[in-house]
Structure formats: C-alpha cells, structure tokens
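This section describes the prediction task in plain terms. A model, or a person checking by hand, is given the sequence of a single protein chain and must write out its three-dimensional structure as a string of tokens. No templates, partner chains or ligands are provided. The sample shown here is typical of the held-out split.
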Amino acid sequence: MFKLISAILFLCGAYMLHAQPDFDYAVSVPSKSLQSQENIQVYLPQSYHEGNRNYPVLYILDGQWFFLNGVAIQETLRGDGLLPEMIVVGIDFKSRSYHDSLHFNHWDALSTYIQEELPTYVDHTYRTTAERIVFGWENPSFMVSEFLFKKDPVFTGFILSNGGYVNQEMLEQFNRYEGKRLYLYIANSKKDIYTIESSRELEETLAAQSAKNLEWKYELFNEETHESLAYTSIYQGLRFYYHNYSSKVFSGTKEFYDEGGLPGLKAYFKARSERFGMESEIDASTKNSLIWLAWKQDDFSSFQLFMTEFKDVLSTPRYASSYWQNRFGQYYLKNNDASSAIEYFNNGIKQYPDPEYLPVMHAGLGNAYALVRNTSKARVHYKQAIRLAKANNNDEQRKDYEKQLKSLK
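The expected answer:
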C-alpha cells in the first residue's frame, strides 16, 4: 500500500511539474553587432511542451525590470481568452547604461541585435509565429519608435510607455511599407514631466498625417507616475493589440444594436478570422452571453431574436438540464408566449425528469395551458404538480398549486 501511494504521489507531482510554465532567466544569445554574449529571460507557456503548435512572442525591453510583469499580464489575459498563449522574452539591459542618454554609444548595434539577431535566434530555438510584439519604456520607447518607423518593421505590435517619437522622414519611409497592418500603442501620464511632451508630439503628428497600414492609440493614465506606468502600458497595449481576439462581450442589448446588431457581430468574427486564423462563425460563448444578457435585462424581443438566431447552442450540454428548460419555460410564460413555454416545460419533463423541478414544470404547464384557455390540460398538470409536491414533502409548493387549481376557470 505504501508503495502504491508513493507511486501515485510521484506521478501527480510529475504531472504538476510538467504542467507548469517554463522559465529560464539566463539564456545566452551571441551578438555579432554588439560583439558579446547577451542575456535574455524566456517564459514558455504551460501548453508549450504538450504539443507542437507555434506561439506569438512578446519582447520586453528592460527585461531585468519588466519581464515578470509581461509574464503575469500574459497569464492573466490569456486565462480569460483575451489573448493567445505567448512566449515572453525579456531583453536584459542591466549591464548597460541605456537610460543615461538617448544617444548612447551602442544604440545602432543594439538596434541591430534586437531587430535582427534576437528574433532570428528566438525563431530558430522556439516554436514561434510571425506575430511579434515589442515593449519599450522611457529611452527604449524611442528605440521601439525607430523599429516601427525607420526600417522595414520586423515586429507587428509596438507598445511605447513614457516616450516615443516620429519625424517627417521616418513617417515618409514608413508609408512605403506595403506589408500587413501594424499596431502601435502609446501610453503616458501628465505626471511624467520628463517624457509627456514627446508622447504628445507623436500623437499630434500621427493625428495630422495618416500612416498607411497602421492602427494606433494614445492613452493617458494620469494617476500613474514616470516609474509606475510600465505595467499598465503592457497590459493596455496587449489589450489593444488583441482587441478583436476574444469572444465578443456586450454591456447590454443597446450596445449590441449600437455596434451594428447581427451584421456587426458577424463582421467582427469575420475580421477576427482573417486576422488570427480562427473560426469565422459567431462563437458559442458570445451566443450564450447574449441570450443570458437579454434574459437578465428582461428584453424579450432581443431574447426571441437570440433564441432563434443562436438555436444551435440550445442543443449543447450547457442547456441539457431541467434547470435551463424550466428557466426558459418560465421566461416565455412571463411574456405570454404559451406555445414556447409549453415546448420547454415538456422537454424538461421528458428529457430531464429532475424531482426538484418536475412539480415546478408541471405547474408551469398548467399556467401555460390556462393562458390559452385549455382548462382540461391545465387541470391535469396542476394535479400532477400537487401530487409531486406532496411526494417531495413540500407543503408550501403544494398549497400554491392547489390555490392555482382552485382559481382555474
């Protein structure tokens, strides 16, 4: 017995270890441009060793400070389906004085390393996709600006925190770019008296002169300071880049219609499919949430629309219970749709005969038949509800159903 328990504990421990994310804080990368061995930190998501799929990569400049921020944000957001699992690479600057001056001695060499040598190494070492997002805070944000505007971009997403710039020459060069759409997120705070002007000038330039194939956003977080903004910037920058990755969530049915109703929703999933290679059909999560939202807001016309348009999800295991059949039946009954109420009550009774809900659904049928003046069937189901309530020793239910039967005309 002791050996058996030990074996089980060993296997459970091995499974738990295997299921954990993979961290390496000291990966050495050779760099010809810098004539040195550079250190990076690498995070591989939990599923990396469980299959052979490829992953997008988030590159964090100043990894010695912000690598774990990127990992934590990635873990949080992908857990809610707001972005895919990602590889996170921290680029370690701690051995260099890259924040002392904008024009330090190795700026060009470091740019070559980050844009050319490092992505090549990462792509050859790990299973990656063509999606690369790069984050820079303070002085490195100016470097990330150059990655976007001065050369053919090797990254697809750019997050600038507390800095960044563009001039006319850079913008003209970028407008010759003919590749896929790129994404730029800029964040700062009015309390950052050191870099706010550069961010503002960048925003004003982009607003005045359109940049082809570039989607961008500028946000201020005025409760943050120069030192505290990086985490927020990574979080919001990833949310912006993956703004159309997740299931669609609405705050209310009004927002659903304001954003184009069903045609707008279908367009969202079509665009998501084209960008990320996902299914183009509206997913089950969105369908379920809209059905629930209409019910919660007591918007019966929208509820009817969603129940008709999304009827495919009604046959999924989510609704395979007397609880849901009764819930739908009661809501239809509340809105005087007797035929639909009868359909769901009957389905619940026949397919999911849960003793707890059987008397409730029979009473629901009694109410539905009473609504259409079929008193004979109403009487049959009220009596059945009374009998079942007695069997469940539920006197309160029984008295209620007896009262309904007595009032039946």
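For orientation: The longest strand covers residues 22-31.
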